[in-house]
Amino acid sequence: MTQDWIAAFLIGILGAGHCMGMCGGIAGLMNLGQTNVKSTWLNPLFYNLGRVASYALIGAIIGGSFSTITQYSGINSPLVWLRIVSAVFMICLALYIGQWWQGLTYIESAGQSIWKYISPVGNKLLPIKHPLYAIPFGFIWGWLPCGMVYSMLTWSAAAGSAKQGALVMLAFGLGTLPFMFMVGISTGKLQTWLRLLIVRRVGAVILLTYGAFQLHQSISKLL
Q: If you write DSSP's letter for every residue of 163-176 in order, what string do you get?
């Protein structure tokens, strides 16, 4: 599984431009009205730690649920089939990040039905009065409907256990953390660079190549 952790971490880094588009605005609210220099970097840090923790929890839930289902499904090579699904989602994610195809927005829209009940809880924590409050705020916002997160959750489903599912999502979350932290402390030049279409498409091509490789490897196991 080490290979999956490394790949998930790199995907988090490569998808930084998309993460900034989805969560950059809310990350920028961490220091709203802050005059304490220490809080201006602790708030974004704790927010991101909370967000990553939520990814790990979701990964554990998905990984554990699907591992239980596959044990009793009676389907031959169930994890291989899940790997194929995750590879397809990875290809879709690459097309999404590269802005060649936006099909994952339909999945994000489906998640909005739940998010509308969760987001008001997070909004009550604003403005952040103490850095520790940023942890639950980030944990709540980790459930924001996101095609990239949903794509990674298919990896958790194929991980084979709750522990492995959590570790896949933890690695992914840690990959997103450096750029999202820097966005939170308002590094304007970084945000401008990440918005460049060429930067997003270079990352997308790498993801597309990796997804195609995983798809080929998984299908080969069934032949």
A: HHHHHHHHHHHHHH
